[in-house]
Amino acid sequence: MSEKQAFQWSSAGRSHVGMVRAINEDACLVLPEVGLWTVADGMGGHEAGDIASQMIVETLQRIVPPNDWDGFLGSVRDGLREVNRRLREESAQRYQHRTIGSTVAVLLIHGTRCACLWVGDSRIYRMRDGQLQQLTRDHSHVQELVDQGLISSEDAHRHPLANVITRAVGSAEDLPIDEAVYPLQAGDMFLLCSDGLNKTVSDEEIARLLAHSNQNCQEAVKAFIHLALMRDASDNVTTVVVNISEGAGDPVDDREESGQKTVDNPIPPDWYLQ
């Protein structure tokens, strides 16, 4: 049975190659008409990371607007596992079994709730009532060290193994997918990002930027990219922002093309520090 649509949303997304790398191995998907948003980060240093992230986006792009919650979740799980299988085959046939992989973070909205599905260290944050919360937990070596109390969260970014992830689409025969479901609330803002953002911009800065964005998704996305580039982003940077408001209506799609140009940002460069 289809759930009543109690909320409407606006959203925007952008991916940038950054200031150092020659190839953008990130990809994002903004499908407000379906209630689906995705960030994927091809595994840097591995073969064909851009192929892996793009395959995820192209597969999820074929998902149709949902009739029911369970079917929606199931179609995303099936899509990711299909990509996992295809990447394993591609690795065996063309890359001598070298890893072709990507992280993925997916936000789904249907009715009065949302779901986060993720593999790897791409993140989903929620800003609610002025408080920022990370809804995903990184599948990474340093996160395991943090969980064991061996290093602090503040030290994790500087750890020599900070880029080592423990799970990715395409890296193993089986694909465990972590999931979490939350009720929606008007005023919620969600940020999906690759690690090129959260390793450059702190959680405190993310919270300030979202708080000052006036719920303008497109300007928030531009400001995130702008800030990462000001700090000489050494990795690809991808962000997707979704804003939830009351009442059913047509979703607003403010998606932008991925590009390698610095964003012309009408927001003053220091507004997120105010």
Structure characterization notes:
By secondary structure, the chain is an alpha+beta fold. It has one domain (7-137, 170-273): PPM-type phosphatase domain (Phosphatase 2c, domain 1, 4-Layer Sandwich). 28% of the residues lie in helices and 26% in strands. The protein is built from seven helices and eleven strands. The chain has a six-stranded mixed sheet. The termini are far apart. The model is unreliable at 255-274 (pLDDT under 50).
Name a few traits of the molecule.
274 residues; alpha+beta; six-stranded mixed β-sheet; five-stranded antiparallel β-sheet; 28% helix; globular; disordered C terminus
Described by strand count, sense and barrel closure, the largest sheet is: 6 strands, mixed
Beta-sheet strand percentage?
A: 25-35%
- Here the CATH topology equals Phosphatase 2c, domain 1
Strand segment count: 11
What general outline do the C-alpha atoms trace? globular
| CATH-defined architecture | 4-Layer Sandwich
Look at the structure and name the CATH superfamily.
PPM-type phosphatase domain
* Oligomeric state of this protein: single chain
How does the helix and strand content classify structurally? alpha+beta
Number of folding domains?
1
Mean pLDDT: 86
